[in-house]
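Lab manual, section 2.4: Encoding a predicted structure.

Procedure: take the sequence of the chain (214 residues), apply the prediction step described in section 2.3, and record the output as structure tokens. A sample record is shown.
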Amino acid sequence: MSGGAGEGRRWAEAARHLMRVDGRWRERIRRIGACTLKPNRDRLGVLARAIVGQQISAQAARAIEGRLLERLGGRYEPGAILGLGIAGLRDVGLSARKAGYVWGLAEAVATGRLPLERLGRWKDERIVEALVAWPGIGRWTAEMFLVFGLGRPDVWAVDDLGVRAGVQRHYGLERLPKPAECRELGEAWRPYRSVAMWYFWREGEAERSAGGAS
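Recorded output:
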């Protein structure tokens, strides 16, 4: 069975689990369709992209990343990033701080101090602890790495605004729930809370698109 087929089967089981434990998931999953979450083998790229996108619009992040990838030859390689240097990273539009973060991350991977290729054998919380030790990587970025870099099934990023908005919609709450409330309300969806987040994100994107088209 191929990796893609295996992921599809796992996420289909996750969707069935969510609907079994909470019938409110049924309509959302029917409307959005199958979960297409797929781990990204470019682990350095997942982290670097997250740093690039911090505190700027998605459009600006895409533009900067496009220029950066062009300079890197289309791929995030530690040696290529180090070869650009801080000045080269600044040239594509990164702030001095972000350029330092990306360069430092590449240096840590190149020297083995951050063993990205071995992280997949570690437990979630150990991975988070290892990643947040590096400048520019906070808990949210580490959690996104778990989901999009490693395809971990039970990540629950309660600080993510899209997740909090999804919980608010799901339970019909009058106000945006606080992270602690989200943590409690999501307990029933273990061990597939990453899939719950994915559906909340897709639903939020669809609502924003519909609003922009009106």
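Check your result against the sample. DSSP finds eleven helices and no strands in the chain.
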